[in-house]
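Q: What structure does this chain adopt?
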Amino acid sequence: MTVSAVSSTTSATATSSASALSAQTVDYQSFLKLLVAQMKNQDPTAPMESTDYVAQLATFSQVEQSIQMNNKLQSMLLGNTLTQASDLIGRHVETMDGKASGIVKQVEVYSDGTVLVLDNGTKVPMGASFTVREAPAAAPDAPADSDTDQSEA
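A:
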């Protein structure tokens, strides 16, 4: 059933997001456990310097901040990509080699890139070289019946 496939994909995505978050938490918890174990098991005749502990904590803090900054940058990049891609909807796109052209009807975003779906069904990767221009003006439809006045109702 199609619905099952959609819900399993959604739950797989949610599970991978949750496991990524838990992996970061496990790393932090593991670091603290290692630090405590190191303090408990150090040689009492030659204890570790407190500056070494501070250096370890500072290094771990820098790594944790880098991970958080990378996650935020990925979110910003995705937002920027969506903005750029949505601006192409309704525009005429043609690949530089001339093999594909048409009006962009929708944009599909995947983990490895963005794909433009043209009105003729052709899919063009957004990273491909292409030209963009205004869509040709559509032929005017039959004129609306201007004799009908809505105020008569």
